[in-house]
Write a structure and sequence with these properties.
Layout (H helix, E strand, L loop, with lengths): L1 H10 L1 H21 L9 H18 L6 E2 L4 E2 L2 H27 L4 H20 L3 H19 L6 H32 L4 H10 L4 H19 L8 H7 L2 H26 L4 H23 L5 H22 L2 H28 L8 H5 L2 H4 L1 H15 L5 H15 L3 H27 L15 H19 L2 H16 L2
Antiparallel strand pairs: 1-2
Helix pairs in contact: 2-3, 2-5, 3-4, 3-5, 4-5, 4-11, 4-14, 4-20, 4-21, 5-6, 5-11, 6-7, 6-11, 7-9, 7-10, 8-11, 9-11, 10-11, 10-13, 11-13, 11-14, 12-13, 12-19, 13-14, 13-18, 13-19, 14-17, 14-18, 14-20, 14-21, 17-19, 17-20, 18-19, 18-20
Length: about 500
């Protein structure tokens, strides 16, 4: 019994490590408030240490797939790989925040603790094999994100973002809970393996189940900005502090898509001919609306917000296909998107003035003439987001689209490629503005603005954006067995 309990605790070891790190951050912050200012500069580094230790624990648990707590959690490679995606987003967000948060007079102790707790919630969501565990994890990270979105209390846009995110998030959570209730009523369980068994035996009430699936799609769709549940995204992304926006764009996708995949592939895989079409239609709607709206944006943050909607649609192509290759492709897409999107948001922080982004052209026009290094880095991130070889974004799209073709969804892959071409227009427009338009008055960036943490973030993001494109096997070999484990559970 003791060995079983120890093994179960190992299953939660990454999440427990994050919670412990958040507790340490809070304690260090309390010491600072008692007048010991020497502790304040160490808060982000304590948080980063917690992220690093958690990443080490996740790597240690690789290749030890097992289910725990009566099949409510798993430690398969896919869960550990998704942990690394989420931890990457958390680490880069912390680095982006070191100079940003004091500049907007935010409470840094609570901020870093919330980042860690939100990350723990996302990690639980990625390992969940039960709808109730998914819901608890979803609420843990959602409540933290509501707070972080409104962290700039003197900024009306930030207040609006937090209120809008909270109210719409509450509706999405209600849909999710109703969906769980319908699925339970249809199958008699919230565990994915028991749901699958009910479908296989013919004991499930399919009408109730389809209603539940529809409501769960609405709940998940809000979290990952799927159309038509995406309307909150541009305003919240623009109003929230930029490091929070960057973290939100990556972490929520990793956690929610992981739970999305597990429920549909492991839980209701027998009904794939029905829900596959529903997800395919949502993917087309999401990527098309995201790209068309991004074409009209003049604010870089809003452009990246609509861009994130389009990328959610591309990842959903893999979800709809639901083959092992598609699972691999979606995981590769998530880690690639984490680096290239974080790099783009790091440039946004440099271009911001007093925490607010002005018109796109004023900041980017002629950037190559005044800051050639920044222009080069931004070009790398834009080319990758556009899907230009040999960067990570190209291979991410290639793997997902190729898996769709191999899985019999050629029409969906064709629409996705057409949307990718549309998306390339607004990404390449940014590159053209930087290199072929005369500099504007707003492009001057002082040397002290490019801090060491920001430089580290840009360097890491650029290196991995290139490396994952040139050497994609570095990541695909890691997640392949995780994908096979998921399929084996069906």
């Amino acid at each position: 019994m003791n060995s079983a309990m120890e093994f179960n605790l190992n299953a939660l070891l990454p999440e427990l490590t994050m919670v412990l790190a958040a507790t340490v951050v809070i304690l260090v912050d309390i010491l600072n408030r008692r007048g010991r200012d020497i502790t304040k500069p160490f808060l982000p580094w304590v948080a980063l240490a917690g992220v690093a230790v958690t990443a080490g624990v996740s790597i240690w648990l690789l290749n030890e797939p097992a289910s725990h707590f009566q099949n409510m959690l798993t430690t398969d490679n896919r869960a550990m790989a998704l942990n690394l995606v989420t931890l990457t987003g958390a680490a880069l967000a912390i680095l982006l925040s070191i100079r940003y948060m004091p500049a907007v007079n935010a409470q840094t102790g609570e901020y870093y603790a919330l980042i860690l707790l939100i990350t723990a919630g996302m990690m639980v969501m990625g390992a969940a094999l039960d709808l109730m565990v998914v819901f608890l994890a979803l609420e843990i990270f959602s409540m933290g994100l509501y707070i972080l979105a409104g962290l700039k209390r003197s900024d009306l846009r930030s207040n609006e973002a937090a209120m809008k995110y909270f109210l719409l998030g509450a509706f999405a959570s209600a849909f999710f809970v109703y969906g769980v209730a319908f699925v339970y009523g249809a199958t008699g369980s919230t565990r994915f393996d028991m749901i699958a068994a009910a479908l296989a035996s013919g004991a499930a009430d399919m009408n109730l189940l389809y209603v539940g699936i529809t409501m769960l799609i609405a709940g998940f769709g809000f979290k990952v900005s799927l159309a038509p549940f995406h309307m909150w995204t541009p305003d919240v992304y623009q109003g929230a502090p930029t490091p929070v926006t960057a973290f939100m764009s990556i972490g929520t996708k990793a956690g929610a898509f992981a739970a999305f995949y597990r429920f549909f592939v492991v839980g209701v895989g027998e009904a794939q001919p029905v829900w596959g079409w529903a997800l395919a239609i949502l993917a087309v709607l999401t990527m098309t609306l995201g790209n068309l709206a991004a074409l009209r944006q003049s604010s870089l943050k809003r452009l990246l917000a609509y861009s994130s909607i389009a990328h959610a649609g591309y990842i959903l192509v893999g979800l709809a296909t639901a083959t092992p290759a598609a699972i691999d492709g979606a995981l590769y897409y998530l880690i690639s998107y984490a680096f290239m999107n974080m790099g783009a948001f790091a440039i946004v922080i440099l271009l911001e003035r007093q925490g607010e982004m002005d018109a796109l052209g004023n900041r980017l026009n002629g950037l190559s003439k005044r800051h050639p290094q920044l222009a080069l880095l931004m070009s790398i991130f834009m080319f990758s987001l556009a899907g230009v070889p040999p960067f990570a974004g190209f291979f991410a799209k290639f793997y997902v689209f190729a898996a769709a073709v191999a899985g019999g969804w050629s029409w969906l892959a064709a629409i996705a490629m057409l949307n990718s071409a549309i998306g390339a227009w607004y990404y390449l427009r940014i590159v053209v503005n930087m290199y072929f338009v005369e500099p504007g008055e707003e492009t001057r960036i002082e040397a002290q603005q490019v801090s060491l943490p920001l430089t580290i973030t840009l360097g890491i993001a650029a290196v991995f954006t290139v490396a994952l494109g040139v050497l994609p096997w570095l990541w695909t070999g890691l997640v392949q067995s995780g994908a096979m484990n998921v399929v084996a559970l069906r």
